[in-house]
Amino acid sequence: MSFIKLESVSKQIKGQLLIKNVTFQINKGEIATFEGINGSGKTLILKAILGLIKTNGNISINDQQVNVKNKYPISAGMLIEKPSLIEQLTAFQNLKLLAQLQDKISDDDIIKLLISLGLDGHIHQKVKHFSLGMKQKVGIAQALLGNNKLIVLDEPTNALDEESVASLINIIKDFNTSQTTFLITSHDSNFINQISTKPFIVRNGVINAKIS
């Protein structure tokens, strides 16, 4: 049974059709990737699935309709466009704020997650002093925090070096062993080839399954 289902989904902004009659299904536990250049419609697709924008057509998650007016059907962690951080707080404090909205996330859980992303030594430093790559890691940590059934990562490798990308690949695969479903956009074919179990190509708002 499909976990995520889109049927004839379209989005028009200022007279321009940016998502064009998109239909696809994703099963629980899959790592679905959306590969395409900037402006192809990748981020809009994620926003539509997360119920952040109104669209024409039908979107369902776990057999429940997604609607911008209603509560989202499941727990989801997300990094969309760029990390949403409070610069005056430390990396730990930024994650602690999110942890207080969820159940059973300990301080140790937060610290272990930040260490896994290569931020040991910076956990209690203010984010305003971080490089773009370090801020990106904190944003990824925000999305991974907790026991979310769905994790959405929009261009997660932005500003990351090769070693950090390799670590992220291992983290995604590790999370996926517990049947976490991932939706990931990227323009990096090498990264996608190493993680994807359901690859899509996005061009001008049209999505097609990637043929290997």
UniProtKB/TrEMBL annotation:
<dbReference type="InterPro" id="IPR051782">
    <property type="entry name" value="ABC_Transporter_VariousFunc"/>
</dbReference>
<protein>
    <submittedName>
        <fullName>ATP-binding cassette domain-containing protein</fullName>
    </submittedName>
</protein>
<dbReference type="Pfam" id="PF00005">
    <property type="entry name" value="ABC_tran"/>
</dbReference>
<keyword id="KW-0067">ATP-binding</keyword>
<dbReference type="InterPro" id="IPR003439">
    <property type="entry name" value="ABC_transporter-like_ATP-bd"/>
</dbReference>
<keyword id="KW-0813">Transport</keyword>
<keyword id="KW-0547">Nucleotide-binding</keyword>
<dbReference type="InterPro" id="IPR027417">
    <property type="entry name" value="P-loop_NTPase"/>
</dbReference>
<feature type="domain" description="ABC transporter">
    <location>
        <begin position="4"/>
        <end position="211"/>
    </location>
</feature>
<dbReference type="GO" id="GO:0005524">
    <property type="term" value="F:ATP binding"/>
</dbReference>
<dbReference type="InterPro" id="IPR017871">
    <property type="entry name" value="ABC_transporter-like_CS"/>
</dbReference>
<dbReference type="InterPro" id="IPR003593">
    <property type="entry name" value="AAA+_ATPase"/>
</dbReference>
